[in-house]
Amino acid sequence: KHNLDGDEAVRSTNDDASHCKRFAVQLGYWTDPYLPLLVRSTERKTPEINRGYFARVIGITNIIEKFIKAMEGNCQIVNFGAGFDTLYWKLLDAGLSVKKFVEIDFANVTSRKCHYIRNNDKLIRGLHSDDEEIRYSTSELHSGVYHLAAADLRKLSEVESKLVECSMEYNVPTLFLFECVLVYMPIQFSHALLQLIADKFSTTFCINYEQVNMTDRFGDVMLSNLRSRGCSLAGVEACASLKSQEDRFILNGWDGARALEMNQVYHSLISPVEIQRIEKIEFLDEKELLDQLFHHYCICVAWKDSLDLKLNLLTI
Ligand code: SAM
Q: Does the complex come out with an ipTM higher than 0.90?
């Protein structure tokens, strides 16, 4: 019973993330014509939260775009715990198509997303398949490039069979994205998942966005806020430091990893012009609070680079 309640709370974190992104988009932090099609209502958030989401979304998107360009589109993307992410459609608009784009989440998240996509012309059009070529079920959608599939990431056999069902090719360079996902899983499960990826895919790049430096007082407060909403943060031990974020990959068969605090991401991976633009959107009263937040989130990238494609250079 407890586990079911905990899983429900974890699933609801998607609503939280989507509402935060939706509000930041509405204020003009970045452009996303697709998110309002999946998330109808808006809820006001503080300027620190909006800037935090801006750094998260733009930081991650910039790295993904670099990867696709470096691979000249001959690559696959898997978004684990994708929630209501709209990256697939935004990449299409940017002219960055890939061979395969797979999203996996719990069935009751994917079934809601599936329903919204199915009933929206703008989202369906992006799938570039005739309607008869799209296979739907209550919780899944499979088209030529885009696949939305349901699995519990703690169950490796489910994950593996979904990758096969989505016709993933193990020898094509593949990017895996975890955006605020692994922290909800006991560490032995996330280790096993990262090991599975490293075992199966010869050329792979991973982006993991989540909490870091959780061992200080600010970290304590962040964690108790999250826990008070009923979420189990079973994987939080990997969020102790940048080193522990990197080590989880090295331990599980990856060639290398580099974790950057969001402070670094903000100042090195996002263009100064963009930063100037968004810093004018809202007055930020508590600059220190934003610095603290940025110090407690990171992007960790990791690579397994059998073809020597210089994946280690993508965040430099
Ligand atoms: N990645 C999206 C984003 O950043 O907007 C959603 C993030 S939300 C904080 C976490 C997502 O991970 C939720 O959609 C949740 O359902 C999913 N998730 C967490 N644990 C999972 C598991 N064991 N299996 C499948 N999905 C999981």
A: yes
